Each structure stands twice: as structure tokens, then as C-alpha cells.
Amino acid sequence: MRDVCIVGGGTAGLAASIFTARAGLDTLVVDGGESILARNASLENYPGFPDGVDARRYLQLTREQARKAGAEFELGRVTRAEPIDEDDLEEGFVLEIEGGEPIETRRIIAASWSDSEYLVPLDVGRIQRGSKHFVDTDDAGRTAVDGVYAAGRLADEPHQAIVAAGHGAKVGLAVIHDSDANFYHDWVVPAGYFTGRGREVPPGCEEIDDEERRARDEQARTRLLEAFAEPLDEVPTMHPSVEDD
Ligand SMILES: Cc1cc2nc3c(=O)[nH]c(=O)nc-3n(C[C@H](O)[C@H](O)[C@H](O)COP(=O)(O)OP(=O)(O)OC[C@H]3O[C@@H](n4cnc5c(N)ncnc54)[C@H](O)[C@@H]3O)c2cc1C
Fold this sequence. Notes:
It comes from Natrinema hispanicum. InterPro entries: FAD-dep_OxRdtase_2_FAD-bd, FAD/NAD-bd_sf, Ferredoxin-NADP_redctase_2. It is a single chain. By secondary structure, the chain is of the alpha/beta class. The protein has two domains: about 180 residues, FAD/NAD(P)-binding domain (3-Layer(bba) Sandwich), CATH 3.50.50.60; about 55 residues, no CATH class. About 25% of the residues lie in helices and about 20% in strands. Strands 1, 2, 3, 4, 5, 6 and 9 form a seven-stranded mixed β-sheet that branches. Helix 1 links the parallel strand 1 and strand 2. It starts with a strand and ends in an 18-residue tail after the last helix. It binds flavin-adenine dinucleotide (FAD). Flavin-adenine dinucleotide binds next to helix 1, strand 2 and helix 3.
């Protein structure tokens, strides 16, 4: 049984997975296709990239970060989600995957912009607007069903990458807080920041000394220089209704 299964490995789902995995929750991301962000031609409003960034590279690096944090990935489209025991949601949920084995999980984060059909058996509160469906949530992504959350555009957040990522992180934190994980904040701080004041390092935080800080900075710069050394071969995905020449 997984602690959390995230349906959708796009902008919101990946951000959520980084937080839940770093907090020690057994995290599986199931993704059935491509993030809508792969259609972008140049991502120029995501903070931290003064001249923009290739959206496909951003997705690649974020996936890598999630894997490094401990999240696992499975390719496949989720087709159905239902409680293991209708009378006791704490028993968790089972997800059916097209062409794959069912997955049992204590919690679900639906981050699958463009598809929420699989949530119908759970009655989470889907809202139809035009041809699109959204999932009704509270401020932290909790739906009407305990243990089921929604993140990103599916939760009716504005259609912007940084908002989807931030919301994914926020929903990941809600899952952490609702689980048994002992957690304060996910912070890495200089040695002495807490202990220098006679405090224990709170759960979820880490104190590192200057040597370790420099080593991590070196590793981070090396990886980014390598990642950005060459342009990507991949091109943006065109809208499906645009005809080829
Ligand atoms: C053409 C275009 C250009 C854009 N340009 C910008 C821009 O310049 N700046 C900006 O801020 N935003 C931009 N956006 C918006 C941005 O891409 C989205 O707001 C953001 O990606 C939403 O994140 P999300 O995680 O909610 O959805 P997504 O990133 O789309 O992730 C959803 C994931 O769920 C998966 N999925 C769906 N159904 C299932 C299922 N049943 N089972 C398993 N997996 C499933 C999908 O394969 C996908 O990977 C653009 C969008 C488009 C279409």
C-alpha cells in the first residue's frame, strides 16, 4: 500500500511529489501522457529563469528532482478510483490503470488536468464548465472525500505553470500534515540555525555545515551546466486540432 499516489506527472503533480517524497511518504506518480506545458514554445514567466526556459527541459529537470527525492513513477492512464472499504476510507483506495496492475494507496492527489472521469465512483464533487471538468476543493486541495485531493488546473487554479507548481506543493504539504509524518517545514538551513539557539532540528528540516553547503552548491551548478549545455531536440506539441501541412 502506497502512502500517496499522484495521478498526473505534470507541473502540479511533480511539485506535489517532491514534497511528499522528501517528507518520507511512499510516493508513486502515475502519468498517462504529456503535460499541457509541453505545448508551450518558451516559458518566460516562471520565476528563476530571467530569459525564460524550454518548458520540456523544465519538465525533465522537475521529474529528475522528484526521482531524486524518492518518488517512483509508473506510465499509465488511471481509469477508475474507488475506496477499498466504502464504510472506512482510512482503509485507502484502489486505482485501476489501463493495461497495468491495480494500485492501493492511502491517499490520492488528482493532478490530471484534462481528465477526472476516474474520480466519478468517489463522488468528490466534479464541476463542469463548458467542455471542461474541475474538482471542488478547500484551500489546501482537500476534496469532499477524506484522503482524496486535487491539485493544479484540475482544482480550478489559474492556467499558469508557477501557480500549478505552487498549488501542487501546497497540496503535497496538506497530505503530509494529514498523514502520520512528523513534519515542521521542508527547510535546509546553515548549521546552528536551530541548535545554536538550543533547539532541536525540527522534523523535515536539515542543518548543514559550510563544507556540505559548498559541496551541494558544486553539485547543483555542475548538473545545471550539463543540463543546459545543449538545446533540446524536442519541439512543442501542437494543438491536436491544428492540421499538419
Ligand atoms: C499552449 C500552451 C502554452 C502555455 N504557456 C504557458 C506559459 O508560457 N506560462 C505559464 O505559466 N503557463 C503556460 N501554460 C499553462 C501551463 O502549461 C498549465 O497551467 C500547467 O501545466 C498546469 O499544470 P497541471 O499540473 O495542472 O496540468 P499538466 O501539466 O497538464 O499535468 C497533467 C498531467 O496529468 C496527466 N494525466 C491526465 N489524465 C490522466 C489519467 N487519467 N491518468 C494518469 N495521468 C493523467 C497528463 O498526462 C499530464 O502529464 C501553457 C499552456 C498551453 C496549453
